[in-house]
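Quick start: what a row looks like.
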Amino acid sequence: MVTSPELDRTTVLRESAAAEGHLARICFKTGPPTRTGVELEWTVHDAADPARPVDGERLRAALGRHSPRTLDRASPAEPLPHGGTVTVEPGGQLEISTAPRSSLATLIHATDGDIAELSGLLDAAGLVLGRSGIDPHRPPRPVVEGPRYRAMRHVFDRRGPAGRTMMYSTAGLQVCLDAGEPEHLPDRWAAVHALGPPLLAAFATAERHAGRSTGWASARMAAWYGIDPARTRPVWTPETDVDPVAAWTRYVLAAPLLCVRGDGPDWTPPPGITFADWVDGALPRPPTTDDLDYHVSTLFPPVRPRGYLELRYLDTQPGRGWVFPLAVLAVLLADPGTVRAARAVAGPVAHRWHAAARHGLRDPALAAVAADLFDLALAALPRLDLPAALHDDIDRGLRRRRDAAGRSHR
């Protein structure tokens, strides 16, 4: 991804125009789209009894020198051998965040190596990584606490239990792509959103939660739908196809605060205050650019601009299955022509987020579009210039998924 220049993170924001200018500078870093990254998240289970709770101390001991400081303040928090960093989410989910790579083959090789290292550490501690987008065995339970997570829980609880389910039970696969050249940004922005429903449907893995069937193909996304839509709904829709920077700026400033950092243990904000309200004087002190950046980190739309485009709509995949949605997105966003073609194919179902999470490939329209997208990805796959063995592995995996989608819509 194109990295952000150093900015003064302590600038006080006293008018919305200053906040808008800051967002425009940091959220869409345009340039040639050359790099791809991936963030992999898993629930973690006792190998002998997957329904047994796993506490933070057991995770800390298993991770050793790679343990994040949220579990052990004295940890060196060393990256994994290929550069991936390990974090632990509030329910004890483990996440590897990779360094972006300009070669998809290099990214996959490095990520494979880091997953193998992580899996070995867990295996020695009698633990295994989960294989789905939501914990199929255990109900939501906090493992990591702190002012941020307590504030999130307090705010989410105002609307019901979905926030706790999301925080403590879900696991996702995030693909990170460059925003692209300025003239191509609107198409890329629209395409990564339009691809969301059919790819969510095709790669849904979160049907069972806490020992029961949920009735959703992706109960992970159902949990997100139950949280405040002002921070989880898509920024782009077919009906609001406007300038990405303007759309994102409006979204950020209109979203209610989730955390207001302070010296004490309680960061819970007063209900209903948006960031725009804070700029206008709703709280005792004015916000800074650092507060704005932190506010952005508490927004969870299916696609979030972070200089690059962070695609957040995929469930965790079993085993090495994460390679296939990563490859689909990388190849469909590889050049402007394929971007336009993918957007056109996905367009008729671009608004069908709820149906994708609820029904997955049981929805005929979503299944038909998913099959067409797999065909488009297969046709373009040689352009990635992958090593023969990796190309053949991805080709076979995409054909299997294309055939499954094709059978579903007949």
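That is the whole record. Strands lie at 36-42, 44-46, 85-88, 94-97, 127-129, 172-177, 208-209, 212-213, 303-305, 309-315. The CA atoms of residues 363 and 409 lie 7 Å apart.
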